[in-house]
User: Fold this.
Amino acid sequence: MGAMSARPNTEAAARQAENTAPHRAGFACFVGRPNAGKSTLTNALVGSKVAITSNRPQTTRHTVRGIVHRSDAQLILVDTPGLHKPRTLLGERLNDVVRTTWAEVDVIGFCLPADQKLGPGDTFIIKELAGIRKTPKIAIITKTDLVDSKTLAEQLLAVSRLGEELGFEWAEIVPVSAVQDHQVGLLADLIAPLLPESPPLYPEGDLTDEPELVMVAELIREAALEGVRDELPHSIAVVVEEMLPREDRPADKPLLDIHANVYIERPSQKGIIIGPKGKRLKDVGTKSRKHIEALLGTPVFLDLHVKVAKDWQRDPKQLRKLGF
Assistant:
């Protein structure tokens, strides 16, 4: 009986503490070399598929934000493209975006897969991070489900040492597995206190502030990349020309018409995307439509066309037109 009466008091105390603690809100971004698990982690924290996941570098082109709503804090995740040594104009522009973003966020999470040794790519990123003095940095060891505890311990030590060598201290070092949802909540608990005191910056229901057009384009692009990664890893851009509710539909049976263009760089790539008898393009349509309907919560008619935009990655005019 005694135990029973103790419980409401602790709950009341917790409630009171929650009411007195200031609400925090702010921005965090995850960095790390390609395939370090950044997008998967974003999706696990937000609990919904927002960032495009791909095991190819540079597939996250736009700053996709996921929003984690908590009673004590609101965490807005800014997904920056990977930082890499630039080879093209697109590469340089991506790097500028990265550095600007890092300087503006409240917390930076550096993601390092547990199953891969610290490499030159990681050192390159951490050196860049060391230059950004003010922002607290958390080291996140991802994919812990892939290794044993000894390997994990070695990785934690290696990342801690590298920080020391470069003259900064990690605010936290956290192992997580987004796939098994292990310690993802803990990560949010550790990031929250590092955010500035602020009321929520976004309404409760929002998962992302990225315009729907851009997210729809990303879902189509992800589906288009699926079967052709090796042949056309970066030569695909998608522009959604329009999204309009179909007229003359009864209110309980809405249909959204989406017209989108898939841009490639050379005419020879057209056949690769369309596939024999148009089969591949049809698959892209079917697959992306499912994701788009889930995202928008409404039935969709998707009209896809493949167009050639010659060498768009190297042409500033084309880059602007395609939204970069």
Notes: Confidence is low (pLDDT under 50) at residues 1-8, 57-62.
